[in-house]
Amino acid sequence: MAETMTAGPASMAAVPAPGDALLTIENLQAWYGESHILHGMDFHVRPGEVVTLLGRNGAGKTTTLKSIMGIIGKRTGSIRFDNHDISRTSSDKIARLGVAFCPEERGIFASLDVRENLMLPPQVRPGGLSLEQIFELFPNLKERLRSQGTKLSGGEQQMLAIARILRTGARFLMLDEPTEGLAPVIIQQIGHTIARLKNEGFTILLVEQNFRFAATVADRYYIVEHGKIIDGFANSELEANMDKLHTYLGV
Amino acid sequence: MSINLQALMAQLLVGLINGSFYALLSLGLAVIFGMLNIINFAHGAVYMMGAFCAYFLLNVMGIGYWPALIIAPIVVGIFGMILERTMLQWLAGLDHLYGLLLTFGMALIIQGVFQNYFGSSGLPYAIPAELQGGMNLGFMFLPIYRGWVVICSLIVCLATWFLIERTRLGANLRAATENPTLVRAFGINVPRMITLTYGLGVGLAALAGVLSAPINQVRPLMGADLIIVVFAVVVIGGMGSIMGSIITGFALGIVEGLTKYFYPEASNTVVFVLMVLVLLVKPSGLTGRTT
Ligand SMILES: Nc1ncnc2c1ncn2[C@@H]1O[C@H](COP(=O)(O)OP(=O)(O)O)[C@@H](O)[C@H]1O
Ligand SMILES: [Mg+2]
Questions:
Q1: What's the order of all strands across the beta sheet hosting A172-176?
Q2: A20-249 falls under which CATH superfamily?
Q3: Structure confidence at residue B211 (pLDDT)
């Protein structure tokens, strides 16, 4: 842990968050009922960055995103987004500040058709993608508008889950393992989408197990273990950190 | 056996009218169950309140049947929303049993209060002038008010179905039934939606109460008697589907009417016999979810 922290300005793990950060997390702790899952997370995301949380299964990555979104039983510590303290805010109000969440299980609604799924999240800010822009990104969806949401293939469901939050005008996206269980061509398509969103100035907090995929889009990485950030480095330092990364992820 | 068409038609009409009330009431129960996960035992009490509301509007304020058809569901709906805000919302996430006990208790209190002031006898409510009289259809005589009840109930049921299955608002509702946490995380105020849904379900029951006032008189226990049958209807239809509860409501009314003609001795029990059969074969109901 100590080595990368002193490795230069690009190493962020313990550096105080810069004043211009869009999202700043300090000493975040979270619980599911009695079980204490997050034990003091500290990290930040700057506007326009793609930041990836890496870590083994059960490390607490999903719990971190849920805590930011305000959909966890109990959380303490500080969560600042766009100069608002959101650590006690309800999730609908957090969404209205421009935070959008694409859950790991995708959360496609079976009782809604594809169009209804797509139109479900309300617009929270002006400037969301139009339906045309969405169909240009994900042509498959256009063909399936009348299908039941859960009748889509896994890949199409993932596209739908991403597409529907692009409509809302939210500029901060949290994507939880968007490539999990998908075929290589679809992973590639999702990679292109994320790269394009980044170009257009979206800020993205990504959770991934697949760090080869993450490497194609991320600016920085944080390693999560046992509910804490134990390391962090920039994409340019990825090669130098490869050995450690293999140890952390157990691959 | 020879069939007396006139008598058969008369029983079918009675069945259709009962079915109209079953459909409106079981529809409201299904809507409430979907969003709140509560089996609303107060449903009969709010039905009764709808009828009383129409009675007060007429006798205290001089407001007639047609405005009451709108005002009573709104007034009782608001009363329901207050119950949801102050009590039911705290049961979210708990076992069905708590909601059932709480709403059952509320029903007893509401009915007790009305009984205290009005006893158990019925108060008359006249059929509005426009709907008095009847029509000779050739094979039978149709009292106009009864025809109106069937048509009004059908329209309101189908409009509710359309609202839930075909509109944007309905899509929010269906989604929140499936996964309220995620819907809220998209920026939708789910708690407010739950309150409005309870208001909608209760308002439908109150509307049924207003419709029934000229037919059945206005009595504190009018809902308590009816709701037992409606719960059997709901068990048979299953709670999962809006259209399912509408169709089951009308269908069972008709089955009752036919039984009254062909085997009158069983007309009061046929719904319960069907309920037992359905429970044995498909416990989640004919259109219900299997969870
Ligand atoms: N709903 C839950 N209730 C109780 N414990 C949970 C729940 N969800 C996750 N956990 C536990 O929290 C820990 C972190 O889970 P999670 O944040 O999903 O990890 P990751 O996303 O990094 O794989 C795990 O030990 C997991 O078993
Ligand atoms: Mg996870």
A1: A99-102, A172-176, A203-208, A50-54, A220-225, A228-234
A2: P-loop containing nucleotide triphosphate hydrolases (3.40.50.300)
A3: 97
